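Usage

Read records sequentially. Each one opens with the input sequence:
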Amino acid sequence: MMHRSHLIVALTLGAAGAAVRLRGAAPDGRELRIFLNERVAGPRGQRDGVGPDNKSARARRRARQHLRAQKKITRRLQEPDPEDDEYYHDDDYEYESTVEDAREAFIFFVVVACLICCCCGSCAARRLARRNYPHGRELRRPLLDDTNAEVALGSSGEDWPCPVCRHANPPSRSCCDVCRLSRKDALSRKDAYENEARRANGLPVEKEPASPSLANFFSRSTDEDEAPIRLTPLQKRAARRHRWRRAVENDGIVWRGDDSSPASVVLELRDDNAVIVEAAGASADLTGEGSLGHKYASRTKPEELERASQLPFREKYLWFERELDSIRSAPGDGYARLDVRRDRLLEDSVQQLLALEPKHLRRWMRVQFSDEPGIDVGGLEREWFSLACAAILDQDVGVFAGASDGGLKFDPSASLPPDLGGHPRSRELYEFFGRFIGKALLERVPLDARLASPIYAQLLGRVVEFEDLRCLDEDLAKNLKWLLDQKDVSGLGLDFSVSIARRCPYGNMSSSEEFVAASSDVVVKELVENGKNTPVTNDNVHDYVRLLWRHHACSNDAVYHLARGLYAVLPPDLLSVFDAYELELLLCGAEEVDVDDWERHTEYAGEYRRRGANHPVVKWWWRAVRALEPQDRAKLLQFCTGSARVPSFGFRALQRNDGRFQRFCVQSLPRTAPRFPRAHTCFNRVDLPLYASYAELAAGLRVVLAMEATGFTMD
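and closes with the structure output:
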């Protein structure tokens, strides 16, 4: 309000100056000249006190009169005519100047009064607007934010590299996004972890420095120095992710192994549903079948793809963002609309998404839930992605099952023939899920779809290694390893067949050339012709291990339809620059909700704008969020943004459905509003009432978390 008081003082001083100038313009007291033509009246003959007998006096008088008359004529000739306008020129000028000053002063006072009234009215109107329309300022914001990805994500110089997997992590991460190594350990024992990573890749280990630096000496204890480093299974697999890299061969982009795996991989998806990977020069025990998608004519030059594949993940992400903008349809081309029912969400989603033509899959998408008044500006779409993802990945559906690494793998029983108990719609569901994750990548929506890493590797066409079986079934990998170490296996009673449990309540007891119905619950698959009658001996044990590993690690039919759906939305060359771990991070985002990063990249509006994070209610809000369990934080994030996952670069990378960056916002509610938080998922915003205490805020938050975090209602 300081600028308004200064304005009023300046206007008052100006008015006082005008009044002083008006008073100074008064006349100077000079009397007007008046010419009298009549003399003082008196008796006849005695005018001017002269009697009739005094003739000499009369003569002198007349002479004086004549002289005065001559002087009078002379003066009149020298002075202006009284009837002339110039006679009163000086006095009239002063008079007109005084009137003009008075008029200007009056106008000045009127203008000042109007300005004061406008200022007071504007202040009153703003206060009334803030009280009655708390969201008015936000509604006047431009709908399109010109902030690009480079500005929103920051510079790559702030990232810290992981010594195990060599992934460049954002500065806000407390652990590596790929191998989960803590930042503290990565910085304090960098050389030791680098040596362990080299050992995991079968490379010679460099000698660790004998004397640590002075900073490291004081930063860690002696016990930590002497403690041996043991990499977790995830860290060992992540350390080996650089064994395969992209290279240009025969005017195409292929996977090529390093010195320890010198194999170039050529990928093809044939029309007869056969997925082929030719691994030239690689042993059969280390390579298997996979899928890249359609054999396509690349839009991007192979040299450009090779260059992009060697960039850090941040630069790859920016490259991927630019490519997505180039292939996405313009808003004027229309929208891909889905109208789904909540009680039959998966069925409606599968039917409508598979019905879209490939050229319509790259259009902007709008989702409408039946019998709900919500209008999709991004929030309903993110909610649909979250609900449909949970529905298709539900193990009761019968197409995915749990894997040893915590992710999901293809359910072996789903790929059985339908007449033997296989899922009757497995191919349709796999193709739908491929289109689903491709659409999620195009719409920049992170999914809670953590598949096993061999599935991502097969989607990218990378060779599946024997160690990848540990991600799917660790017990089976240990058993096969034990079997190869045995000197005599002929007495174990093994044959070239594998049993598959039938989970679907369909099918009969019929058999085929490859499958045999052993019972109502089990189907036997023969790995070779007449495999059930072919025993495993010391001579063919390696073939048995290879075939059994390939059966569990490479699901050709499922991968084929998954890749077919994925690459109907995105060209394969856009994903070819990523490896399996980077693709998972790109699709699923960050694994945990970092409250510090959430608070750091939050904006405030309404009553919270001026004080921001220092407002008492805002402090209570972050205190309550930190006190929540991880699953409750994810549910709160689902309530506020429509998605329970955070983008790979944290809360600074939150986006709307148009690809524009939209940070999380905390908006105030008037004291007369309901005492519960209110969310606007389309704009990543939560409306927080002006609570009187922390206990009141925590109680309102508990009520919100106890309710269903999905659904749209008119508040």
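Summary fields computed downstream for this record:
- The chain is about 40% helix and 10% strand.
- The chain has a mean pLDDT of 75.
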